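Ticket #603: bound-state structure for protoporphyrin IX containing FE.
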Amino acid sequence: MEVKYTLQGLLIYLAMAAYVAAFVRRLVGREKSGQLLYTFGFAVCCAAFAYRWYSVRHVPMQNLFEVFLSMGLLIYPVSSFCERVLRVGGRCADMLIGTIVLFPAGFVFSAEPQRLPPALQSWLFAPHVAVYVLSYIFMAKATFQASCQLAGKPPCPDGKVLPAEEATYRMIRAGFPLLTLGLVLGSVWGKLAWGDYWGWDPKELWSLASWLVYVGYFHFRYMFGKRHPRINSTWAVAGMAAIVITLLWVNLSRLFSGLHSYAA
Amino acid sequence: MNKFRRAVLWCALVLIILLIVLSIYGAFAGAERAKGFFNSLPLGLYWSALTVMLIAGIGVFRRLVREPALLLIHGGCVLILTGSMWGSAAGHELRKKLLGIEKIPGGKMAIFEGQSDNHVKAEGERGMKELPFHIKLKDFRIEYYKPEYLDIESRQGQHWQVPVEIGGEFSLGADVGTVIITKAFENFKITFEDDKSAAYDDPEPGYNPALEVQIRGPDGGVTTDYVFERYPGHVHPEDKFLLSYHRTVRDYISELAVIKDDKVVLEKNIEVNHPLHFGGYHFYQHSYDEQGRQYTVLEVVSDSGLIWVYAGYLMLCIAVFWHLWLREFAAGRARVRSE
Ligand code: HEM
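RESOLUTION: The complex was predicted; output attached.
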């Protein structure tokens, strides 16, 4: 646990507090003030991201601290987009997801700026991480919808948004192209940096496994439609579990030997 | 859905689940063992089965042909799989046996500065193979981030990071003193003349970066120390401070020229992320002579099948966005507009 007594840390804690407060207000039915707090949290996240960018002088997506910070930033526009365009609810849960993803940035990972090692000085690096971060948010939303479906509780009793099973499918449809692009950009970058477009290191294999879980989901759902909604949802939850392992476990556990260790 | 189509889809699903399980196994096995495992004969059979299944799917499900995006997704996967099998070591071996085409799948070559070479130590093989052209190393160098830093730690646990600026004075606080870095060496050596020692920068091949550091105490007393990048933790019992010299590598650069028929046909400085491509091979900066910085080690990789893999990537990426996003978001926009 690392408390950050810096402006960077202060901004993150403020954003977290705003997201939590927004969540609580929404929970007690105070829609308007909840939304206002959520927007305020987003604005603070923007400031934290911009400040980080200014201090490290490269797109801040180099290490896990920056990845989690950008997730906290992106949750807001994604959640508005999903609700308005894709009819997928769960804004209340997004506020909580925002707090959860900011927690590692605020308390777990070091914000010490690092100089980029030669392999990371590639134009492919930032888009590779950015599309992954965005896809993870969609998949996290899919997991929330799938969990609601498994628990038998509608995420939102509002008629304007889709039921949980369909919302899960729509979220995975939104996240999968980004996940594919992230995988491909990583592979092309690996080819330029290390000579191999596929190095078989643990992080690559976990990301392949998570991508394949969603491929499996699509085909299972095509075969059986909505006849087995619980199994459909289980695929979605399994996909997120594989993503969490890709993102965290490989970096934290140091159980495996591989190329991606610098990303920790 | 008829029985045959259902059977094809079941097979596809089983193959996908199997690959998930194998990937997780590979992740536990570690990169080196996973590489061997996924390139082994049984896995070769698996890759072939997956390719056949994808082609069968395209043949059996009319929608996979009629819907261009679905065709591109599945066709893209076929290209990626065939391209990577074509470019694998086994693919190279097979082509040598069946078509008589000999190409080195991959290996390493070490080249000394000023010299040219065409010998490659092929991966997993004894002896050297020859490229049909030579690579000359004009120069190898390492670039570092600026400023470099001198780390100072007192015995009481205080810590300072001093930017390396020759002649610049850095205060450690009124009760500790000041630091001046008086000289920086790339290849530190010592001579003894008339029983006196003197440090100098040796222009001969060798590599021993060091700093000459003067620490002036609050009482005015001056001590001179040498700090070596390659030998950290060099302290005497009477030393008040632990000094260490750190540099962060920004890039490794090999200046190369390709020589064919005694003529220079291409020149390029290769760095990490910027390889050289010539004659069906990619050349990557791999490592270097850590002692004397006199030679570079290049990784040589055959480009066979790469174009197919990249074409597959492109098809797959365009098609997943097309199939899963465009129609969805267009419908979503229409919904928003109609409200
Ligand atoms: C192994 C053999 C495979 C077979 C036989 C197969 C077959 C199919 C079929 C029949 C569909 C449904 C098309 C429709 O909507 O009418 C489909 C959809 C799809 N497949 Fe495959 N597939 C295979 C492998 C793959 C792989 C490796 C991928 C990885 C990218 C993939 C990605 C997709 C996607 C993204 C869809 C669209 C899903 C949706 O619209 O919900 N497929 N596939």
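RESOLUTION NOTES: The longest helix of chain B spans residues 306-338.
TICKET STATUS: resolved
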